[in-house]
Structure formats: structure tokens, C-alpha cells
Write a structure and sequence with these properties.
outer membrane lipoprotein receptor (LolB), chain A, 14 strands, globular
């Protein structure tokens, strides 16, 4: 699985949902993914709801890769709009593709400062301090921050049972060509503390800072690359 949407700002939780202008554009996007020698497809969709958004990411092997890898990874996040970004309410993951299968449902209780739910049938409860994001909602927090000009240098990642600080760096601009079009992009590089993986999101301002190319390196070697194939904005509610 591509664990590239995992960064979150340490911010106060005093804002109420849907008080600020919704900066994110609902859309559907499809990426061609290469993981080492295997190929796949990532489909994402962002939908607007009465309190914020719902986003779904699904990755599946394609072509000859289906002979070596079967299943899919489907993740859905429901998150509210707040004054300085987004705040998750529920996260659901169903992974039948990875070697270690995982099914997780997590509810975020911000009043209690807890994230609780089940992972592979076992109950879990994690204490959360400050604003935490799940594996999907964090992409849209980053996009929101870039749109509003408030991208931060240090975020935190919530991985079911722990919080992980992530360092973020803007690494410059360049032009890229993709099947979805030609874009001027900025690079957002992030790395979790203690991780050997470094991920770079090449984000296009004209698409609301949607990543159009995603690259993940491990020990200096490119391991994952995802390239935007199709992008379709959808109507707001």
C-alpha cells in the first residue's frame, strides 16, 4: 500500500465544523501506480457532505500484476470542515491486498480526546492530543493548508495505535507532464520520524494542490510512483 497521505498539523480544536469557507473541490481522480515491478491503479473520490467531506481511496493491482497480487485496499474517511482545515470523524479501512490483512473502523471523539474502534476484531482506544488525522483525511488537510498559504513544517501522523511526528519541507517547483495534462507543481516532501521512507507529493495549484505525481523513496531508491491519469471535478452540494 502507498502510505503517502500521513501528515497532520498540531492545531487547537476550538473551531466548530463548517464555520469556514470550504476550500476543497469535490472530484474524482485516477492514478497509475508502480510499486517496484508491480503495477496498479489508485482511484480517489472527494464528496462534500453537510458537515464537511467524505473521501474514498481504493488501490488495486492491474494487468499482469494480478497474477502476483490479489485483493484491494479500500479506505474511507468522513471529516468535518473547521476554521483551519479538516477534522476526521470516522475512518474505515479494508485491506485484502497487503500481506498482513487489516480491517479497521475508528471513531474520533474529540470531546473525550480519544480515537476508538476495532482493528481485525479487537477493540482499540488511543489517546489523541491536538488534532490528529487518519490515513485519508490528511491529504486534504495538506491541500487545504497549501490553498490557504498555511502549510506547516511539522505535522503528526495517527496510525491506529500511536502518533508519529512528521517533518515536511517544500522543495521547489517544476513542470511535469501526465496523461491528465501538463502542470506546474510544487514539491512537498515528508518523512515520519524513525522511518526510512521519504515521500514527495508534486502538487498542482490549478487542481487545488491535488498531487499529480507521488514518489516514495526508501534508502535513496525509488520504490513507488503514482501518476495522475484522469481528474474530474464534481458538483458541490
Amino acid at each position: 500500500m502507498i502510505r503517502y497521505l500521513k501528515i497532520l498539523p498540531l492545531r487547537a480544536l476550538c473551531a466548530a465544523p463548517l464555520q469556514a469557507e470550504s476550500l476543497l473541490t469535490p472530484h474524482k481522480a485516477t492514478y497509475k501506480v508502480k510499486i517496484s515491478v508491480l503495477g496498479g491503479q489508485l482511484d480517489t473520490e472527494l464528496r462534500q457532505t453537510t458537515t464537511g467531506y467524505s473521501a474514498t481511496h481504493v488501490i488495486e493491482p492491474t494487468g499482469m500484476s494480478r497474477m502476483f497480487a490479489r485483493g484491494s485496499i479500500a479506505e474511507t474517511s468522513h471529516f468535518d470542515s473547521v476554521s483551519d482545515g479538516v477534522r476526521p470523524r470516522e475512518y474505515v479501512s479494508n485491506d485484502t491486498l497487503s500481506r498482513e490483512k487489516e480491517h479497521a473502523t475508528i471513531q474520533f471523539d474529540w470531546d473525550a480526546g480519544e480515537a476508538r474502534g476495532t482493528v481485525n476484531g479487537s477493540d482499540v482506544v488511543s489517546v489523541i492530543e491536538g488534532l490528529a488525522h487518519d490515513r485519508v483525511s490528511i491529504q486534504y488537510e495538506v491541500m487545504h493548508d497549501l490553498i490557504s498559504g498555511n502549510a506547516e513544517a511539522r505535522y503528526t501522523m495517527f496510525e491506529i495505535d500511536r502518533l508519529r511526528p512528521v517533518n515536511v519541507q517544500i522543495i521547489g517547483e517544476k513542470a511535469v507532464k501526465t496523461p491528465a495534462g501538463d502542470f506546474q507543481v510544487i514539491g512537498v516532501r515528508h518523512q515520519a520520524e524513525g522511518s526510512k521512507r521519504v515521500t514527495t507529493l508534486w502538487c498542482a495549484e490549478q487542481l487545488g494542490y491535488l498531487p499529480v505525481v507521488i514518489e516514495q523513496h526508501r534508502l535513496g531508491k525509488l520504490k513507488v510512483r503514482a501518476t495522475l491519469q484522469h481528474y474530474t471535478p464534481t458538483s458541490r452540494q
